[in-house]
Specification:
Structural class: alpha+beta
Distance between the termini: 67 Å
Shape: elongated
Radius of gyration: 21 Å
Strand content: 35-45%
């Protein structure tokens, strides 16, 4: 093996990888410097559109490239979930790249996607083992896995514009739970490209370096009414009080603004969310609106008085 290839192999092995397990079963975190088996049935390929050929690009360029890749994967009907790669804890300088886990591809299909994105190598997991699949020559270098535990518990903090990719990935994953929903960032949701700038208030729930939940607030009637927006949460964190904490953050914001009312509009398909809102004291007002968007959304209006 060439000296340069050996260097990249060592770098990739000494990195942290994580991907979202389909079906809301949480995340799997690992390094490729251990001896554990892959432990998967169908294959899993970790890929990103960030920094093709390991040439550093701007965050804006990388995020746009990942959005294009997600759209292409969806159009090709490739099953995928969120993923990321990063430096191991304690490594300086640190790095992180967002990406996707592609499920059930053949090795040839994985290579086609890797070459399409200009990637040097892919993480490849299959029932027979795991390894680093180099795109130029198609050679698989076997590796063993080392399972890594989840980091500290979720942390609620103000959003930054740099959270854009994570927020978009979270919302897209939630939309996938409801057939027919389409997240059109470029046309219908451009505010998500710079959430801290575009929204009056925006907060994220950060879990192990990723965006696992989010919520936003916009004043509709100064001194009277706030609108709650963009409330989304990973399946693995639901039913544990985190949704209540997100909503509570907007309620605190409303009180600080002197607003006694909080409203929200929610897609009629999000029935689980409606039950949660109603359990927290929200009531449906009977108002309905059609958005005439790509998802053909019809929304119900909910209202709550801030205590």
């Amino acid at each position: 093996m060439a000296e340069a290839a050996i260097g990249w192999l060592e770098l990739y092995r000494a990195s942290l990888y994580a991907y979202e397990i389909p079906g809301g079963a949480g995340w799997r975190r690992f390094a490729l410097d251990g001896a554990e088996p892959a432990g998967v049935g169908a294959s899993v390929t970790l890929i990103t559109a960030w920094n093709p050929q390991s040439e550093e690009r701007s965050t804006e360029w990388n995020e746009a490239a990942n959005r294009r890749l997600a759209a292409e994967l969806a159009a090709a009907r490739v099953r995928f979930t969120r993923a990321c790669g990063s430096s191991l804890p304690g490594t300086h300088p640190g790095w992180r790249e967002e990406g996707f886990a592609l499920h059930g591809l053949s090795r040839a299909e994985a290579l086609r996607w890797g070459r399409h994105c200009g990637q040097r190598a892919l993480v490849w997991l299959e029932s027979g083992g795991a390894g680093l699949l180099f795109c130029a020559d198609g050679v698989l270098h076997p590796c063993g896995l080392r399972a890594l535990p989840e980091g500290p518990g979720p942390r609620l903090r103000p959003a930054r514009d740099s959270d854009s990719a994570g927020i978009i990935a979270l919302i897209a994953a939630v939309y996938d739970e409801y057939p027919g929903n389409v997240l059109d960032v470029e046309t219908e949701e451009r505010g998500l490209l710079a959430p801290a700038t575009a929204f009056e208030g925006f907060w994220v729930l950060e879990q192990d370096g990723r965006v696992a939940g989010c919520i936003a607030a916009v004043t509709r009637q100064p001194g009277r009414r706030i609108e709650l927006k963009k409330c989304y949460l990973e399946p693995g964190l639901r039913g544990q009080g985190w949704g209540r904490r997100l909503i509570g953050r907007v309620e605190d914001y409303a009180r600080a603004q002197g607003c006694a009312e909080i409203e929200l509009w929610s897609d009629t398909r999000f029935t689980a969310g409606h039950r949660a809102y109603e359990g927290l004291g929200w009531r449906r007002t009977g108002a309905v609106r059609e958005l005439h968007d790509l998802s053909r959304s019809v929304e119900w209006h909910f209202l709550k008085r801030s205590e």
